[in-house]
Specification:
The structure holds two protein chains of two kinds.
Chain A: H1 2-9, H2 14-30, H3 35-73, E1 78-88, H4 95-105, H5 108-118, H6 127-140, E2 141-146, E3 150-157, H7 160-189, H8 191-196, E4 199-205, H9 218-247
Antiparallel strand pairs in A: 1-3, 1-4, 2-3
Helix pairs in contact in A: 1-2, 1-3, 2-9, 3-9, 4-7, 5-6
Chain B: H1 4-12, H2 19-30, H3 36-49, E1 52-54, E2 64-66, H4 68-94
Antiparallel strand pairs in B: 1-2
Helix pairs in contact in B: 1-2, 1-3
Classes of the chains: A alpha+beta, B mainly alpha.
Chain lengths: 248, 95
């Protein structure tokens, strides 16, 4: 019987055994164990184990719930897109030309102007706040060349209408930049040569009004949830370690 | 009175005791034998609440002592039980 109760006592969680194991073993040696004690120890050992698992479960669930709430509170991203086609009158390459007129459009002062006009990110419009705004804008602007002549412009923002307006602003500035460069060429080369070397920029797709957000997507929610679960597990583990150290 | 935590507190009210001594004492004054699991479940809960504390011991048989807070709690519980006992007995006598 004694061997059996000692065997059943191994059901208690490690932290419990570390704290009470020696004195519990002494009690089992002193008291003449009965059959009912086997069930008594089984029951209490299971309860101690469940309380521990419950704590771990609660920590993990709390982590997942907190992370999902954070993901839910993350502002949605709406992406507006427009496309242009740039054609060289002489059939030459347009890649360098696109890079040239995009540079001016996407420089800091141009973006700051758009940010001010559209009151982007609800920021103050001066000093370092504007620098941050411009950096943030840059991160959310995507220019992609489609094939030989196509150029797509994308801007992501928490408001779909503002995203659309900003893409419109960028496009308008690109058209203006193209005209300015054409004027420069006329001055440098003369009208006939400038016409021969000119580029035609045509809007093939006007800035879209996004109907569905581009993010946060399922992947974001899953990764937030997994991160929260992992943090919960680490927290539960740290609590257990602390408990063991304190009780030692 | 079958709450194991209350029985443990009552056992420690007259001095420090280790697990086996508590088991014997409780059997003597309450006529109830607490199983080893129940006894240590109660000890662990009481220690967690700060109502008893373990004393240093070279022996594996570690004695426990009632804390001031534990004594206060026991007093409150027993006073409440006393009220119930008094009321119950008075009503029985009235019949």
């Amino acid at each position: 019987m004694k061997r059996l109760v000692h065997f059943v006592a191994a059901l208690y969680p490690a932290a419990w055994r570390k704290r009470y194991g020696a004195e519990f073993a002494a009690l089992l040696e002193d008291a003449a164990p009965r059959w009912t004690d086997v069930f008594d120890i089984l029951w209490e050992g299971s309860m101690a184990r469940m309380a521990q698992s419950k704590m771990i479960g609660i920590c993990i669930l709390a982590g997942v719930a907190g992370a999902l709430a954070a993901a839910h509170l993350t502002p949605k991203r709406w992406v507006s897109q427009a496309t242009l086609v740039v054609q060289a009158q002489d059939g030459g390459a347009v890649r360098e030309y696109v890079a040239e007129f995009s540079r001016g459009v996407l420089d800091s002062s141009a973006l700051a102007e758009i940010a001010r006009d559209r009151r982007l990110y609800g920021r103050d419009v001066a000093g370092s706040a504007m620098e941050d705004t411009v950096k943030r804008m840059r991160r959310n602007i995507a220019l992609r060349q489609n094939g030989q002549n196509g150029l797509s412009i994308e801007f992501a923002y928490p408001d779909p209408k503002v995203a659309q307006s900003v893409v419109g602003d960028i496009m308008a500035r690109m058209m203006e930049a193209n005209l300015r460069l054409a004027e420069d060429r006329v001055e440098k080369l003369g009208l006939q040569a400038a016409i021969a070397a000119s580029y035609r920029v045509t809007v093939t797709e006007a800035p879209s009004l996004p109907r569905t957000p581009a993010g946060p997507g399922r992947l974001t929610f899953v990764s937030f949830g997994l991160t929260g679960g992992a943090l919960g597990s680490i927290f539960a583990w740290a609590m257990r370690r602390l408990q063991v150290i304190v009780s030692a | 009175m079958s709450d194991p935590t209350l029985l443990v507190l009552a056992s420690l009210a007259d001095g420090d005791k280790h697990g086996y001594a508590m088991m014997e004492d409780i059997q003597a004054f309450a006529g109830a034998r607490l199983g080893p699991g129940t006894l240590y479940g109660a000890i662990a809960r009481l220690e967690e609440r700060g109502w008893i504390r373990a004393l240093d011991s070279d022996d594996r048989r570690r004695p426990y002592r009632l804390t001031a807070e534990g004594r206060r709690h026991l007093h409150e519980q027993l006073a409440g039980l006393q009220q119930i006992v008094k009321t119950g007995l008075r009503r029985l006598e009235q019949e």
